[in-house]
Design brief:
With 328 residues, the protein is an alpha/beta fold. It contains 15 helices and eight strands. The chain has one domain: 3-Layer(aba) Sandwich (Rossmann fold).
Length: 328
């Protein structure tokens, strides 16, 4: 069986960590385990000079479910980064709307309870409609609790089951039928396997020709010593604010091995992205986590890069210099 055929098969999905770890994810999503010992809010507020980014942050942290809260507590600076990107997308859409007035669309791939998508829709005040997919049904009650159903919808299946026909026939709003302006992968691919070219190709079919696609991933490193030093920074300087040492070690033993099996190197991710997109930029790095944006429209992605501000990343978490750069 070829990689392409294997990717789309039920066997591929059923053998993935996303399915094998369903009980663990449900426990996290329903707040039965690994609950942060304090509320998760930015500890870098004084470093964020953009009032709109702070407003986005405040809107998001007040309406998160347990699994997304756990995610924020696990990844250094991701809360600040999602706020930065959410504001950049909102401002980008404001500019686009001056000469292309319409409702814009955003799909977040297997993104917990849709906290970020819901926040984006609310912050954009109706100019953006959002879709969140998640195979973990434990996330949906929190989506339903906080979402504005006029602006955001939830599809309780894996992204692998979100196809063009699915979007047209079963999912959400009429605006989705012509494709999404923005797609955001929220560290989802690694839970299915290393087949990035096939995974990216699948979601690329849902993107408008001039759309932007974002990839947030935890990546491997060629030097395992470097990888472990970054992990130590994450655990000791960030996660320790929210979890006990025993909880951190439990997650490392129970979950991270399977997660690691689906991670790839940065150069492999970039190569896979370039199999589908011409323009690729690095936006952000924190420990072993990276965020990239890609598009086939040079003007569109150039305008977005001119819109987004600088990331807020303390030096102890940032291992790339310069952080924002084109990846050729």
């Amino acid at each position: 069986m070829t990689a392409q055929r294997a990717f789309g098969a039920d066997e591929y999905l059923n053998s993935s960590a996303m399915v094998k770890m369903a009980a663990e994810f449900n426990s996290l999503a329903t707040g039965q385990s690994q609950v942060p010992k304090q509320s998760v809010k930015t500890r870098l507020r004084e470093q964020i000079t953009d009032a709109e980014v702070l407003a986005y942050h405040d809107l998001m942290v007040d309406r998160t479910g347990p699994l997304f809260t756990h995610f924020l507590a696990s990844v250094p600076c991701i809360l600040e980064e999602l706020s930065r990107v959410g504001v950049a997308i909102t401002r980008f859409v404001r500019e686009l709307s001056k000469y292309e007035p319409r409702t814009y669309t955003f799909y977040e791939v297997d993104a917990f309870d849709g906290s970020n998508g819901r926040t984006l829709a609310a912050h954009a005040a109706g100019s953006i409609k959002t879709l969140t997919s998640s195979p973990n049904k434990g996330n949906q009650p929190y989506f339903d609790k906080f979402a504005d159903p006029i602006l955001s919808c939830f599809h309780a299946e894996s992204f692998m089951r979100v196809t063009q026909n699915c979007v047209k026939q079963k999912v959400g709003f009429p605006e989705f039928a012509t494709g999404f302006d923005f797609i955001y992968e929220t560290a989802a691919f690694q839970f299915y396997g290393k087949e990035r070219e096939e995974q990216i190709g699948h979601v690329a079919k849902l993107l408008r020709p001039d759309g932007l696609v974002f990839f947030l991933e935890k990546l491997n490193h060629p030097d395992m010593n470097v990888y472990e030093r970054r992990e130590a920074a994450k655990d000791d300087l960030h996660k320790s604010h929210y979890f006990t040492r025993e909880e951190i070690e439990w997650k490392r033993k129970q979950m991270l091995t399977q997660m690691h099996d689906g991670q790839v190197l940065l150069e492999d991710l970039v190569s896979a992205i370039k199999g589908h997109f011409t323009h690729v930029f690095l936006l952000w790095n924190s420990t072993n986590f990276y965020e990239l944006v890609a598009s086939n429209d040079a003007s569109r992605i150039g305008q977005f890069m001119a819109t987004i501000g600088d990331p807020v990343i303390p030096v102890e978490f940032c291992f790339e210099s310069p952080v924002m750069r084109r990846l050729d």
